[in-house]
């Protein structure tokens, strides 16, 4: 694929990248900052936010690789409703026996992540879904930020989605991450929905 910088390559995801993708998911989970010190289980977040994407839709996953390691990724699905059903049947159902539902009194972040595994990926239901059926997650380590590489990852995913005749893509941004919100709006995303104090849903037209 392309070389957005001389020391980094942008390429399709490969199965050997799984551990690196999980690690990046964890190290960007605190509103973009490193959350490794916040979790006892370093895999639990990746199981929710990365694993089902690369397992079920690997053709819509791309990574940035340096000479030493993978430093960023974008993960997408062309049809969020279909993905919700497939991830429930073929991913989360297999994980739940390994991650029993914690007690209500357990307020730890690990417990919250385990509850997300039991919740799965809810089937979306919104008036804008027909126009923006795809969704994505993108994360970059600090050394890959601020260099135009996020846009390069997005453009790789957009090309794959357009080739699949997908009209638009959406994503969620936590209210505690205004920097990410600014990044997406700079790329051309528009606001589809806002829950005050919690999150934004943004959409990008691919046509």
Automatic annotation (TrEMBL):
Protein name: GNAT family N-acetyltransferase
Enzyme class: transferase
CDD domains: NAT_SF
MF-aspect GO terms: acyltransferase activity
Every N-acetyltransferase domain range: 8-207
InterPro entries: Acyl_CoA_acyltransferase, Glycosyl_Hydrolase_84, GNAT_dom
Pfam families: Acetyltransf_1
This enzyme's EC code(s): 2.3.1.-
Keywords, comma-separated and alphabetical: Acyltransferase, Transferase
Domain of life where this protein originates: Bacteria
Residues annotated as signal peptide: none
Keyword Acyltransferase belongs to the record: yes
Keyword Nucleus among UniProt keywords: no
PROSITE patterns: GNAT
